[in-house]
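Record copied across here:
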Amino acid sequence: MPEEQHAPVLSVKDWMITILLLAIPIVNIILLFVWAFSKGENPSKSNYAKASLIWAAIGLVIYLVFVVIIFGTVMSSLNT
């Protein structure tokens, strides 16, 4: 039977650097995509990046729904 390989546990220092890099605008989005879809990345960091991208997509959809509702309300009130 093949031996299971475990990914190394990310240290506090690794997470501190990760969080610091994610605080930089534009760089954070690029890094999330790289970490999420890179084959050689630590599975913990990859899963975190995937979850963050999913939450960002959910937030974007909610934001767009509210913008459409508000825009529709404003345009409707201007036409009356």
Notes: The chain has a mean pLDDT of 93. Residues 32 and 49 are 5 Å apart (CA to CA). The helical segments are 12-22, 27-37, 43-78. The radius of gyration is 20 Å.
